[in-house]
Amino acid sequence: MTHGLYQKRDNLFENMSDDEKRLVVEISTDLLDKFDGDVGAYERNAIRNVALDTVKRFRANETIIAEDLISEGSERSDRINMVYDRLVRTTTKELEKLGLLEEGPELKKAEAQAGWMEQIENAKDDSE
Predict the structure, then answer these.
(1) Whole-number Å distance between alpha carbons of 4 and 100
(2) Is the pLDDT of residue 110 over 60?
(3) What is the residue range of 92's domain?
């Protein structure tokens, strides 16, 4: 694999260089330090996935630049860009769920939904 975008997370860590493994540990540690609240199994796994996906993106960036896949416009470059974009969105959503991003689309959606739910509750209370 040249960039690892398609590689499953379970196999990814074992195939990383020592530098990449250190980077995963550093990213995970940094995110855990920023996390506000109880850190359970879900949070640890989500943070690990974010760190692994970050290394995937670093690898992909190197491949995209080295092979000039930005301007190529081939089926392969389109597929890589689509997977890369999905990876970025997934990482962003996960960081927002964990409360590690202050404001973003997922947080805005959650706030909008909470506002909508509050309006329903208020309308329900008014009708009673």
Answers:
(1) 25
(2) no
(3) 5-126
In the chain, how many domains are there?
A: 1
31 confidence band (pLDDT: 50, 70, 90): very high
Long-range contacts of 60-68 (CB under 8 A, 24+ apart): 60/3, 60/4, 60/5, 60/84, 60/87, 62/3, 63/2, 63/3, 64/3
- Helix, strand, coil share (%) of the chain residues, nearest 5: 80, 0, 20
The token pair at 83 is 């997977």
When pLDDT is cut at 50, 70 and 90, the band that residue 85 belongs to is confident
Round to whole Å and give the CA distance between 119 and 112. Answer: 11
CA 106 to chain centre: 12
